[in-house]
Amino acid sequence: MTATVSWQAKRYADLSLDELYELLRLRSQVFVIEQNCVYLDPDDKDRHPEAVHLMGRAADGRLAAYLRILPPGLSYPQVSFGRVLTAAEFRGQRLGGPLLEAALIEIQRRWPGADIQIGAQSHLQTYYGRYGFEPSSEPYVEDGIPHIDLLRRGRGAA
User: Name one GO molecular function term (predicted).
Assistant: First the structure.
C-alpha cells in the first residue's frame, strides 16, 4: 500500500519553526536513536541559503518522508542530497521511490543538468542504481555503517 503524500521543498529561511522542529526531531529519531549513530545532526548545512528541505506529508499532515538537498560545493563538488528517511509508521508504503523522484525533479529545477553525488549506505547501492547512480568511491565506514559514494551524471539542461 502506498500512502498519499504531498511533496514540498523549502529553503531554511522559508521553514516555519514547527516544520524545522519536526524535521530535526524526525532525523534524530531515525539516525541517532534507531540507527544508534551518535553525531550532531544539525550541521550548519541545513541553514545554507541554497539548501533545500524536501518534505513528504501524509494526508493528515504528519511528516512521512524527508531528505535534504545541498548545492554544489557544500558536501561534494556536485549537487548532493542526504538525510534520506521515511518515518517508522510509513515504512513499507513504498515512499522511497516517490521521495527520490521528487528530489531529482527539484534538483533539475534548481540546477538544470547537474551531476549529483551522494554518500549512501552500501546496502542501498542497487536501489540508487535504478535511478542512474553509479559507484564513485570504494566502500567506507561512516558512523559505524558501511557507505559508498555514488554519482549520477547530469541529464542535460531542460
Answer: acyltransferase activity, transferring groups other than amino-acyl groups
